[in-house]
Amino acid sequence: MTRESYLKRSLGTTLSRRIKESRVLLVGAGGIGCELLKNLLLTGFGEIHIIDLDTIDLSNLNRQFLFRHEHIKKSKALVAKEVAQKFQPSTKLEAYHANIKDAQFNVDWFATFDIVFNALDNLDARRHVNRMCLAAGVPLIESGTTGFNGQVQVIKKGDTECYDCNSKEVPTTFPVCTIRSTPSQPIHCIVWAKSYLLPELFGTSEDETQDFDHSEDAENAAEIENLRKEAQALKDIRGSMGSEDFAEKVFNKVFMTDIERLRGMEDMWKSRQPPEPLDFATLQEQSGSVDNTISLNDQKVWNVTEDFVVFKDSLNRLSRRLKDLKEKTSEKDVSPILVFDKDDVDTLDFVAASANLRSAIFKIEPKSKFDIKQMAGNIIPAIATTNAMTAGLCVLQALKVLKDDLANAKMVFLERSGVRAINSDSLKAPNPNCPVCSVAQGRVFIDPTRATLNDLVRDVLRLQLGYGEEFSLSNEIGTIYDPDLEDNLPKTLSELGVKDESFITVVDEEDENPRVNLELVIRVSQKLDEPAATEEKKPVTLERVMDIPRKPKAATPPPTEQVNGTTAHEPVTGKRKREAEGELSNGYERVKRVASVAVGSGDGADPIVLDEADGGAILIDD
Amino acid sequence: MTDSFPSALTGPSSKERKYDRQLRLWAASGQQALEESRVLLVNSDGPIDKQKTTVSGVVGVETLKNLVLPGIGGFTIVDPASVTESDLGVNFFLEEQSLGKSRAEETCRLLKELNPDVEGTFSTTPIAELLQDTKFLPAFRLVLVSGPVKCSSLDLLCNASRELGIPVLYTHSVGFYSTFSLQLPAEFPIVETHPDPETTQDLRLANPWPELLEAGARVRDLDTLDDHQHGHVPYVLLLLHYLEQWKETHEGNVPSNYKEKTEFREMVRAGARTNNPEGGEENFDEAVAAVLKSLNPFSLRSNIREVFEMEECQKLRADSASFWVIASAVNAFYQMHRVLPLPGSLPDMKAQSADYISLQNIYKSKARKDLEEVTETVRRIEGSFGAKRSPIPEKEIEVFCKNAAHIKLIRGRNIPRIDRDVTVQSSVRMALGIPESLAPISIAFQILDAVVDQLQETGSTVASIDDNETWDKQTQRIIGVLKAEDPEYVDEEVEEQIKNATQELRRTKAGELHNISSLTGGLVAQEALKVLTRQYVPLDNTCIFDGVKSRSEMHRL
Question: Where is this region: Disordered (chain A) (predicted)?
Answer without folding.
Answer: 550-587
